[in-house]
Every structure is written in C-alpha cells, then in structure tokens.
Amino acid sequence: MKTLIVGNWKMHKTVPEAVRFCRELLALGLDLAGTDAVIAPPFTALHAVALALEGSAIAVGAQTMHWAEAGAHTGEISPPMVRDAGASFVILGHSERRAQGEDDHDVNRKIRAALAHGITPIVAVGENTAEHAAGETLTRVVAQTRAAFANISGAEIRHCVVAYEPIWAIGSGIAEHPAGANATMAAIRAAVPGLDEARILYGGSVKANNIAALIAQPHIDGALVGGASLETTSFAAIVHGAHKVIA
What we know:
Number of helices: 11
Helix content: 40-55%
Largest sheet: 8 strands, parallel, barrel
Low-confidence stretches: none
Number of strands: 8
Structural class: alpha/beta
Strand content: 15-25%
Mean pLDDT: 96
C-alpha cells in the first residue's frame, strides 16, 4: 500500500499563484516512488492545477462537493463538475465544513456520490478540544466513521481514504503524539469492515520535522497537510520524509 500525502490548500492561492506552485513543484523533480501525492486547491484553481500537473504523478482533489449531480443548489459543485475539472479525489467531512453545518448524514451521501462517479473520497473525522480533554476521542471518531460509511459495502470502503484530524491540533502547530494518533487510527480502522484495506491518514499540524515519526506508525498510511502544503519546499520535504520511511 503506497503512502498518500494530500495537500489541502483551503482558501488560499489565486489561479496564477496555483499554477506557479505546480510548476515550481514539478521543477523540484519530486521522487514519488512508493508515494502518492494529491493537491487540493480551491475550486477556482482546480482546472488550472489539473492542467499544470497533467502528465505528472501528482493527482488533484477537490475540497468538498455536493451529492447531487445537478439541480437548484446555488454555490455548490457536483460530482460530474469535480471530474470534469480534473479531480480524482475529494475531501469530505472536514471539520471546517462540519463547523458550517455539514453533518454525518451529508458526509454519507457525499461518499456515495463520489464512489458512484469514480472519485476517491478522503473522509475526515476528528474530535474537538473538549472531547479530547474528556477522554472521548475514540467514542467520537468511531461514531463519525460508522455514520460516514453506513450502508456502504466493504468492497467500496476499501477504495476510500480516511483522514483522522484532531480538531484541536489543526493549525495549532502541535501535532498529536505519533503513538496516540496510531492508537486512534487503529480504532478507526477496526470500526468498519473494509477499512482494514484502506489508507488512513493523519492530519493536524503535519510538518517536515514530524512526518517520519508519524509514518513510522503501523496504522498511519500518510498525511492530510494544511498550512505546510502551501509552499513547494515544505510540501516536497513532507513527501520526501514519508518516502524515506518506506524506501
């Protein structure tokens, strides 16, 4: 199973900035042997990034999408639109989306839609600060995982990706201890049939100086990277750090 490193740009980069990033990244001659890499730009730059990375080993992902194929959903993006723009992955259920009202039922419908359109869902789960302090991490993330994949077959689930992102760690500069993250991700893997063969990523203050320790854990198959994916050198260093562990 290849390690997977996903760069989530969130609401950053105009089209020219995104294209420049891609050109600079490709110029570095990134070694992707044994590692998959995905860039998830904002929707405005999705097609431009796909064109800039065309022919390379770096895939493109969307940061969310609607479950409907078309309709009266002002401001939303459909699965066919995501595919048409050049994306083969989509991040679903990110805590920043959940904070704006997305719930487990929405995430479940989006996963189904992604699978139906040949898009690989990267399903984010994670506990907030209060839940973490109360020792409710496992209860929370297992419940989110089971709800997300409700009534989806194990055969389909094994083609999905889960990203464990402790909400308290996102943007804080303080990542979960590798062993603690690994234990939580082991519980996620055991929560739903099919996840034993799926890739599970860690997200939350991932940087070049902690990626190797994270990837060395048996249940951590990669990383969902936020701020550190916005610069070519830091993103490349994270990919390289993951590659060295599995080389």
